[in-house]
């Protein structure tokens, strides 16, 4: 495994390694095969080696700090999402009175409302993941099903025009006509007849609805057919969309250049004569002159902002209805604020590389050091100067490349943070929160399954309550005997848990 990780650096550093190896071969060949010796004093090697090592160490340490900060910020998203979900699910009351009718709202309506808002909390982390990976818009398998409930227009659907489209969907390049077909009144009024009718007998509008419905159901069937494989998107709703949904995880396709970077210089010669290679390489991501992948910048996405706006709108609604105490309102507001603050910091890490002058000067200094290295070590190594220069250039250039690799840890590379894992962990935890039944404390505390005073008193709570003659029930001495039991608990636990 470790060898594989080291080999992954080769496509990025091979030009430098090759160049300095050729310099080493030139020095060794001239010095061995001609009467001229290219050896020079190694004093410069001693002086500059230590300084350069410290600078490279600082470079990699700085990059790792960015990597570590990115991981901490994702932990903050996890904590804020959990806190927000717990406040919504547990502390927002289930019993509500409709102010217009004066009657109590059905429990189902309240639960649907709360669960939908928690789904938006889950969608927030997913939208941040796509933003950091340079994937704009909302049409993804793991994002669209969670936010498809959000309004598309500033007016009712049947009265809407393209100019009424809200920013979230306008920025995602929503297909206005297809949206009208899927979500308009026509679909609601004709869906039963259309779903049971041959599409050849329908007018053009009905055919579009039927085609959308078939695409919708086909997506559901495909997910069910993949039930035995790892497909976390199966846990999400299957809803019609205006555009085909892209996969939740879309890493750039691998090609031969990812394993043999030096082949990239021969691409103009190889591609026309190899259909197979062309099929592999034409879909590859953008690359530099040496074949190194160019990482995408964070997408100019407003999806996290829009989701935060809807969460704030829900918070405002709860406040207007008086459903939150001041302390809980503060906690909910802080959680939403933390989510927005974290996104700005993640975007800062993504879009703020180290200053170019610093990187250029460090790399130039390293190149000069490696260029003069074979001249200084030839006297001691002879022909071994060639492999020694190759190893040194791979080692030092590799450290620089590692620093550049991990300073932007949000993509699909092996050394990047596993954002999909973080989002799925948040999803599982939010569903665990909504599985909580918020029972009354008395329903589970005063039962035969609870031994609160163990090990001092191993009776269960039901037995202790029913034993009215016990000293615990004394009017003036009951608390005294309870405290004696607590003190006995301490002595027993202190003795049982220590090694003698």
UniProtKB/TrEMBL annotation:
It is found in: Cell membrane. Keywords: Cell membrane, Ion transport, Membrane, Transmembrane, Transmembrane helix, Transport. GO terms for cellular component: plasma membrane. One of its GO terms (molecular function) is chloride channel activity. It comes from the Eukaryota. The keyword Transferase does not apply. The chain crosses the membrane at residues 39-58, 366-386. It is a multi-pass membrane protein. Signal peptide: none annotated. The keyword Membrane applies. This is Uncharacterized protein.
């Amino acid at each position: 495994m470790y060898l594989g990780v080291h080999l992954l650096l080769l496509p990025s550093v091979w030009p430098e390694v090759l160049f300095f190896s050729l310099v080493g071969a030139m020095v060794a060949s001239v010095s061995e095969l001609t009467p001229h010796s290219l050896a020079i004093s190694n004093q410069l090697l001693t002086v500059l080696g230590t300084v350069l090592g410290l600078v490279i160490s600082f470079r990699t340490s700085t990059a790792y700090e960015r990597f570590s900060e990115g991981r901490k910020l994702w932990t903050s998203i996890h904590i804020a999402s959990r806190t927000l979900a717990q406040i919504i699910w547990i502390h927002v009351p289930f019993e509500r009175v409709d102010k217009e009718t004066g009657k109590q709202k059905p429990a189902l309506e309240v639960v649907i409302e709360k669960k939908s808002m928690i789904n938006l909390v889950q969608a927030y982390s997913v939208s941040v993941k796509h933003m950091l990976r340079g994937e704009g818009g909302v049409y993804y398998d793991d994002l669209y099903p969670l936010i498809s409930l959000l309004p598309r227009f500033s007016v009712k659907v049947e009265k809407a025009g393209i100019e009424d489209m809200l920013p979230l969907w306008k920025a995602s390049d929503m297909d206005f006509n297809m949206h009208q077909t899927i979500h308009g009144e026509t679909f609601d009024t004709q869906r039963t007849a259309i779903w049971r009718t041959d599409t050849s007998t329908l007018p053009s509008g009905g055919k579009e609805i039927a085609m959308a419905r078939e695409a919708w159901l086909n997506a559901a069937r495909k997910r069910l057919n993949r039930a035995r494989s790892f497909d976390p998107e199966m846990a999400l709703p299957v809803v019609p969309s205006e555009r085909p949904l892209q996969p939740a995880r879309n890493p750039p396709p691998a090609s031969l250049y990812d394993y043999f970077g030096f082949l990239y210089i021969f691409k103009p010669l190889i591609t026309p004569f190899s259909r197979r290679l062309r099929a592999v390489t034409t879909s590859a991501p953008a690359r530099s002159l040496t074949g190194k992948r160019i990482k995408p910048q964070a997408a100019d996405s407003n999806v996290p902002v829009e989701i935060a706006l809807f969460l704030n709108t829900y918070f405002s609604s709860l406040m207007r209805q008086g459903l939150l105490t001041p302390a809980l309102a503060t906690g909910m507001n802080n959680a939403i604020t933390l989510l927005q603050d974290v996104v700005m910091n993640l975007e800062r890490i993504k879009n703020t590389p180290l200053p170019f002058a610093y990187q250029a000067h460090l790399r130039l200094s390293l190149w000069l050091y490696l260029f003069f290295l074979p001249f200084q070590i030839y006297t001691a190594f002879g022909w071994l100067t060639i492999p020694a220069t190759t190893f040194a250039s791979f080692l030092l250039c590799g450290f620089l490349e590692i620093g550049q690799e991990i300073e932007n840890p949000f993509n699909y590379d092996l050394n990047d943070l596993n954002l999909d894992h973080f989002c799925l962990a948040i999803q599982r935890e939010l569903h665990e929160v909504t599985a909580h039944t918020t029972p009354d404390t008395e329903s589970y505390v005063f039962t035969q399954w609870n031994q609160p005073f163990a090990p001092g008193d191993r009776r269960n709570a039901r037995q202790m309550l029913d034993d009215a003659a016990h000293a615990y029930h004394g009017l003036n001495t009951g608390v005294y005997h309870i405290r004696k039991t607590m003190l006995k608990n301490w002595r027993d636990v202190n003795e049982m848990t220590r090694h003698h």
